[in-house]
Fold these 3 entries.
Entry 1:
Amino acid sequence: MIDRKYLKAIAGIFVLFAIGLVFFFIFSAPYGDGLEKTMKEAGIEEGEPVYQAPLNYGEDYVTALIAGIVGFGLTIGMGYGFFKLTRKKEEIKETK
Amino acid sequence: MHIPDGIMSPEVLAVGWVVALAIIALAVLKVNKKTDDKTVPLMAVLAAGIFVAQMLNFPIFGGTTGHLVGAALAVVLVGPWAGVMIITIILIIQCFAFGDGGLTVLGLNLTNMAIIGPFVAWGTLKLFRGRMEKTGVLAAAWASVFIASFACALELAASYQISGGAYGIEAAISMPAMLGYHAVIGIGEAIITAAIYFYLLRVAPDIIKTRTPAKGEAS
């Protein structure tokens, strides 16, 4: 059973970021970040990626929102799986 | 601050992988000892939340943007080792699912954002512990971005030096540009981190790992 304090925090974070995801595109700017700007100033370009990822962040509100939801789901899944798995190993050790 | 493929020398890439794998392996062991069933959902939701927050590119000056790294936020809520793992999970998903940051350079991206970021934040929070904790959160968020960008600029300069200019960016350009932009981006990181910290301080203060309980309050 999850403590009430953890539930409140989880709900708080969830609400905060769910709202943030919906509104992020309004505030999000299309320019390059600090590293990209530095690379541009130095006159160097990205090399060819050695791995082609199956997804991207999208180019309009709807595709970016879908990418955000997919990323949110993937991260929750991987995070929960990883932390749960490491916890289970600890439990196995304790029972030996 | 996600470095793409093809701009770092092989030697610097190798150092990045060695550092990242060694520290993350240690983090797995440390997190394993401290994780309990109560904190697992919090850490998973926090990781997913930071992933979303990293998608927001806020404008700074000169047609440049920055985005939250989230290292300080993770450290404030779950401590440094779990913070390392949370940012690691995010960077792995960004790289493999969305192509954000190169695969060959993932070791350096992990070193900068998932290792240097959280530990700089942790060290800064320690400096402010017990007094001016709220200021400490602001300082930790700013410092985590600024020092991570310094490491990135150093890696670019080292690549340039080692490869004779075939890779990287010379220090005379990479240092002032990276530090200048990220000094401002760090302010954005500090504002977002502090906003979330103050919000959680109101709705769930017990959850904040780095908070010193008030006198008479059970820790």
Entry 2:
Amino acid sequence: MAKTFDRPKALTDKPFHYCPGCTHGIVHRLVAEAIDALGIQEKTIGVAPVGCAVFAYDYFDVDMLEAAHGRAPAVATGIKRVKPENIVFTYQGDGDLASIGTAEIVHAANRGENITVIFINNAIYGMTGGQMAPTTLIGQVTTTSPYGRDPKVAGYPLHVSEMLATTMGAAYIERVSVHDVPNIKKAGKAIEKAFRNQIEGKGFSMIEVLSTCPTNWGMAPVDALGWLKDNMIPQYPLGVYRDKEEEAKAQ
Amino acid sequence: MAKILMKGNEAIAEAAIQAGCQAFFGYPITPQNEIPAYFAKKMPKIGRTFLQAESEVAAINMIYGAAATGTRVMTSSSSPGVSLKQEGISYIAGSRLPCVIVNIMRGGPGLGGIQPSQSDYFQATKGGGHGDYHLVVFAPATLQEMADLTKLAFDVAEEYRVPAMILGDGILGQMMEPVEFSDYTPRPKADMSWAATGNDGSKPRSVINSLYMEPSELESMTRDLFATYGIIAERETLVEEYHCEGAEIIVAAYGTVARVVKSVIAQLDKEEGAPKVGLIRPITLWPFPAETFAKAAAQDSVQSFLTVEMSMGQMVEDVQLAVNGAKPVRFFGRTGGMVPTAKEIKDEILSICKGGAR
């Protein structure tokens, strides 16, 4: 019987360590499919974060670097500036990118670094066991906001896509979700565009992917997908926040 | 090539360019600002990279990324900025990446001051960041050495896949001296096949990483690293012995302070009845030239050691370890940006003699 569904070439055969129902696996696949579709596997260098995706270097079948917590955009800058012919991407979670790594992501975007950033927003710290993230929703219970996130104490959910869209250097910023099939397809297209932008030298592209963390949210995987749709999307509306090219056309 | 009169900071930058440094990433801090300024002016004109990072933290991580591609890269800073770089330096050491880091020291702790100091000796030689690792630390005392040791630092870093540091101070960075740039003979190009430059499937893919979930793997990696350090200690230790033959007192000093000590020795040489004083000047602070000190301690003529530093006493601990109780080891230091004068050092030497150490 002919195979109709296969592993993308840009993924290794190492089994993912992610929890059941976690959407990292989906996003890894989308990134690998984009690399395959664009035929850039041989020249791609990925930068893994600190967080649940720390072992991303085991899964993407390309040259990989493991960065310190939050520093992936600076690491990617270093690679891209000396090897502009390579395709460089970072894959970061919300603790990594939106908390400890805010300086690095803001300035990489503002410099218009010609890199691709995949930003996983699941509103919680996964690897360390469910602590409050900058993206945690108001009232959301985590181990470090056991009575629900109180903005008087812990501030408000950080809207990274909206914030980076204000930088003059960012070329493309889009927020997508992977809670159902139509959205997964949209996310795949957005991720491919973010890589194509780099090939075409358009500059900094970031795709924010709303994701689930069933384990630390304390939900069954299917319930977690519903919770994302009902609670995260209203707080983090999907859509394109910056498209320099389209803005130039419109003017 | 004719000698060029330049600042120490400029000599480092020019030497790095000549050594094939392809990229510089840094963040402004006094008293090393001439280094980034020199790169900013020169690098774009020769098709190389200069980038002012948003912080020292970002700069050292840009170094991590660029070094991972097998490219010669440098960053520079001064004490408080070097503290910020320690996380990245630890990752670079753990990931076995070569690079050159310059610290033009100023006074500390905290924001400290902007005047010259040697109070980052512990940070530079004992690790600085977390984990089991060392930097190869070069301590120039002249501008000529700033140039030559910078070139050597790139070669050593690549040969052993370790980060190397040039540890200067505000005086060396800011002072002007003639520098000759044709003295240095580069080493053969090291094997860079480990670098991450994209993978066409012809070799295993490169994973630049310092994470080991298995303690036994991390231990084994660390043992490999320390085996390399052993080879470095054997082959790369540099030291100057000055007037040590028959000396009664051996002064231990590096960098700027060693220059002052040499002028003290010159003065004492002219004085009748003055004690005979020698200088041991470590040029590599790590690896530390312990053997040279041990040998000196075994000499009958040597009565005692005096370590002089622009700190409250840091290298003195390595001198004590090397001398291992064979002879007394005394310390004199000024700190906070104060530079010991020739008179102070001379008085200290004479007071040791009066104290019956002769």
Entry 3:
Amino acid sequence: MTEHNHSAVTRRGFLKTGVLVAAAAPLLAREPFAEAATKVLDFSTGADVAKAEAEGEVVYYGHDGEAGIATLLDAFRKDFPKIKTSYVRLQTGALYAKITAERSAGRFGVDILQLSDISPAIDFQKKGGWEQYASPEYAAYKPEYQSTPAGHYGVPGVSFAGISYNRSKVKPEQAPKTWKDILNPAYKDGISAKLATSGMQHSQWYILRKMYGNDFWQEFAKQRPKGFDARAQLFDRLAKGEDRMCVLAEYAGYTLYQEKGADIDFVAPPEGMPAIAIYIGVVNKAPHPEAAKLFLDWALAKRGQQVYQNQKILLYGSLRADAGPMPTGKKLSDFKLLFPTDWNDYAASHPVFVKEWNSIMGL
Amino acid sequence: MSIAPLEQIERARPWRPGPRLVSLIVGGAAAVLVLYPIAYLIQASLSVGDPQARPPEAYGLDNFAGLGRYSHIFGNTLLVAGVATVLAVVVGFAMGWILSRTNVPGRAAFEQLMAMPYYVTPLMGALAWALIASPNSGFVNQLWRAVGGDGHLIDINTPWGIAWVMALFEGSVAFVMIGAVMKSMDPAMEEASQVLGAGRLRTMLRITLPLVMPGVLGAAVYVFAEMLGSFSAALVLGLPSRFYVVTTAMYQLVSQYPPRFPTAAAMGVSLFAVMFAMVWIYRRIVSAGSYVTITGKAFRPRVLDVGGLRWPFLGICVAYLTVAVILPVLTITYASFQHLTAAAPSLRNLTLDNYRTALSLDAVRSALWNSLFLGVATASIGVVLMGFLSWLIYRSRLPGAGLIEYVLMFPQAVPRLVFAFGMLWAWLVFPIPIYGTLWLLLIAYLTVFLPLGLRTISGVILQIDRSLEESAQMCGAAWGYRLRTVTMPLLKPGLIAAWLLLFIASVRELGASILLMGPKAKVITPAIVESWFSTSSELTAAMALLQTLAVAAALAIMFAVARRAVQAGGE
């Protein structure tokens, strides 16, 4: 892996650059409230564990891959064998459409919802979709890693992306070093990115546009990038040499493919790497409310965070103050991560992004 | 002994529902199944307020007016769908004729094998061909460069490549549909032609082709619509060359946040026009001539002796099976045992991990059983329902029967992913709590596969002379009795073909299932596609292969049981 700068994620640092702030934080002041916490295994929970076990089930809606969700739920079931788990997996857009359609029809079958984008998380909050539950485990997180007001959703992990390239297709001396290098005409027709118009791709578009101006992505369009839906496809093609460079290379995807023996390298540009948080919360009118609270507490606790952070199929960096290193030996703070600083501006940019990005991708 | 007049006998019979009443109930129920979600879809296409608001905040035609900016995507779609349909129907007809009407060696075995491409999910076929013929890493192109070639020999990421894969894996249905019609054909007419001095080719073109025209046209209409809704091949092979078709564009529109349902729905609804045109053409052609080959005269299906042409025909069959089955299955099998698929095998790269992971996933274990259950249920109920509907449309002479055909073809016109949103909205508010259960998936499959069943069975029904039913009527047989003892037995090849197609189509269904699956009612194909999105093509290969093997095993067991039942019945 090629890294050019390993400065820590500090709020002051981001604000100083005038670009960014630590974490996906629309969220400052809030009304903290306490739940009566009990200790179970090695974490605190506001749930009544006996009742949760009597409910006997947690229904989870999430955006991660089938194998990733299965890993997460298996680990929870191992800790709480009396509670069965079931899930629905869809990409965030379709997932959110499904749950809102269900709720508008008066069907409340979901206990836990996890989303990969802040916009639907906030929209869901506006619609009263989250159950306001202050997990005792929030104490291990900075205030900006929770909803405003607190208790609607939390942040169980962070994902980030740099540049990755195929070493047999790109000579080391030609390898990209900074974000501006992705505009090098030598890579024309050999670049891939995500087709999605949310989450990480929106974050990258927004941050680099702020950093390099409105023309940056118009220049990028001249490279005729190819768009794909998920990181597995991006890395699959990169590993096989179909594309020479991936400009939205998630660290988790890179790690998985490197382990498989792919001849690829990862570049962490010195400007920093766009990052996004994922959001999880208990759903209002959940059919198994106590089991849902228990699951949320477990997910935010060290036990759950070890699954989120250490299972390579997930590999979300933990924002807990006491989080250990990732399986690659690196901590989240080893990377210079870039988050939008002004949430309102970020949200307002979305329609412009969708239009521009679809056009860049030839859609 | 006095003989009671016929009127008295009729009056003395216990009351049974007449054809009008039964047709009204069944036709009406089928129409409701289709129109209920369509109404929601049309409503969404007219929504001009917040795209996520349900019900819409305001109505207008803006979504249709804005479709002009996607004209290149409509053009792409018509191009690949047209090319793939021509390829599929030509190959389906040629293979159907060779295997049903000629004495090509090993025809019985080939006939079984010909259904194989349809067992292979389109995603698996597309993945296999991506591994075989991608410009840089495709095995063929690597081999080409290894022997001194420059660049690439073939590129599957082109419109022609996409059409090729679509024709192979989604167009193989044409063979089954045309083959069913050919089997139901009295060979006396072909023999008469040859006796009168016509050559084999002339007989095929002047006698066989016109007689099986309803089947061919039915297959063409169905395949073209299927190609318009084709998703996997365009997704896997089109995105690398920035080539979008309507389905892949719609998929992006509804997967993005915020989902743009109104635009996607308008795209889907606009495809209705194409479908109506196809149904209209089909009806015009079949109503303009007579395609009857099954009459009161007994016949035994016989094959033509094509002499030395047997061997070239055998070569065509082998070549087709090689590109449609052997090569893709071998490629996917090879990939499923690799960490990272590479053309040159190495021991270090070999692994069983993909199978370990696949078998550990709930999505494979429980979902596979659910898929097989739904396949059997959809096929069994569907054959009865769609057989009756075919009779209703083409034989009953009831008023409005033709209109029902137009209605029932709706699900074919709109890609299933978008149709599924209509079903989601429709069945969510339905008072009976079937949402999130396998029953909803069963209803969804019966709805979306109505066109498939109708097309397969109607191709055969048009070959049956009405006089056979009329003779039974003259002998006093009630309509239900006639249907059961005359029409249905004659429809047997069509019904068997329809059962097979419905079973396989249900097991591999993707678009409708993605949205309608509940946490406890999952099916296999969405999990496989999802694995391609989020894990790796090697794990996807393992899952797809497991699915194919399970389908093949289930079919083998069912055929064995059916054979035994027939033998027991004959004893």
